[in-house]
Amino acid sequence: MALMPRASHDWTVDDLEQLPDDGLQYELLDGILLVTPAPIPLHQETVSELCVQLRRSCPRHLKALVAPLDWRPDTRTSLQPDLLVVARGDIGEQAIIRPPLLAVEVLSPSTGRKDRVLKFSKYAEAGVASYWIVDPARPSIDAYDLVDGAYVEAGSASGSDSVILQRPYPITITPAALVDI
């Protein structure tokens, strides 16, 4: 059983090491512990297909990676985007420390608010250059690029419509093609 740190009510990345490996996802956002149940098959199929597409187009100096992989911008935040694109030199032994060029969250019934509000805000604040939110239930994608410290819509699509996105590298995404299970 995990205990809150004694000297503070805030969790730190060091506290994550003491949590059980029980199939739940443990993340920190500004010292607050976020716990999410294991993803459903539709979520995982979407993540897998999108990863294949990202890797197919990925330039050699970048790497497309899949969760669970921690991005730790500070000692009180450890997030696990479903997918991320980083410069190869930014991959540490245990975590990604520099802001990803792209963070992707695939919505699940239990993660919509966290992904659309909390992570949206934190990713922008920490300098994540692009953020995509993919909804496999409708199927759709909303893509944002960081401009002057705030996210602006870079493109969106739903169903069998496609969107061409330029960041972190040119790629065409068709949401319906991500959920063919």
Automatic annotation (TrEMBL):
It holds the Pfam family Uma2. Residues 14-170 form the Putative restriction endonuclease domain. One of its GO terms (molecular function) is endonuclease activity. Keywords: Endonuclease, Hydrolase, Nuclease. The keyword Cell wall biogenesis/degradation does not apply. Gene3D superfamilies: tt1808, chain A (3.90.1570.10). This is Uma2 family endonuclease.
